[in-house]
Amino acid sequence: MSLPKAWMSWSSGKDSAWALHTIQQQQEYEVTALLTTVNTTHGRVAMHAVRESLLDLQGEALGLRLVKVPLPWPCLNEAYERAMLSALDQARSEGVTHMIFGDLFLEDVRRYREEKLQGTGFTPLFPIWGINTAKLAREMVAAGLRAWLTCVDPRKLDHAFAGRSFDERLIEELPAGVDPCGENGEFHTFVCDAPGFRSSINVMPGEIVERDGFVFADLVPP
Asked: Which of 173, 165, 174 has its CA nearest to residue 145?
């Protein structure tokens, strides 16, 4: 008997990678693709600002097809929702019945996803929902997950954290009130290795710039 097909909502960051790993360990669903929004103006993953070429390397490392949702910049919410509906149509045509998300505890975000999928025939899955984030962050690092901070909100976390490695030292140095997984938007990451990766992606932080109220660290080959 075949498993239900699922797509992973893929941000290129650590939480997506861990949610994917968790689902694959459960062996209850067949993950057939990674669904990612891409800023077509700059050729980068939306919000995380990771180069599209690095996103492609993640797909290769995981052995999974990427389904890229093109977004203009700036992008109004209406345009975003139209693009996502188009992606859902593609998923439906491929027999996909579940969508996986790496959300941790933000009730409004989860409610938004559930409401948008209601009546579409897709069931949302939240495999790492409710896990204590301090415990989760350390569990990720201990399991060999490697990531870089590519975006920092300087209103919540000092700009100097941009471009740093997500490791035990960084977790220890996060100020009180900053979520260890950055779930409140304090930071976003790019995963270069994690359980399920066939090989690691070799990158290093390059130029760091402040734009649109955020601090971005470009990741480049060494």
From this structure: 165
Nearest to 122 by CA among 85, 150, 151, 157: 85
Separation of alpha carbons 159 and 47, rounded Å: 16
Q: Which pTM does this prediction carry?
A: 0.94
Q: How many CA atoms lie within 13 A of 141 on its CB side?
A: 16
Per-residue confidence (pLDDT) for residue 74, from 0 to 100: 65
- CB of 125 within 8 A of CB of 23? yes
Domains of the chain with bracketed CATH: 5-220 (3.40.50.620)
Structure tokens at 86: 């188009």
Return d(Cα 168, Cα 181) in angstroms, integer: 12
Are the beta carbons of 66 and 56 closer than 8 angstroms?
yes
What average pLDDT does the segment 48-52 reach?
86
CA 59 to CA 212: how far, in whole Å?
28
Cβ atoms of residues 192 and 14 within 8 Å? no
Q: Which helix (H) or strand (E) holds 39?
A: strand 30-39
Asked if residues 94 and 5 have their Cβ atoms less than 8 Å apart, the reply is yes
Contacts of 167 (CB under 8 A, 6+ apart): 141, 146
Cis preceding linkage at 124, omega within 30? no
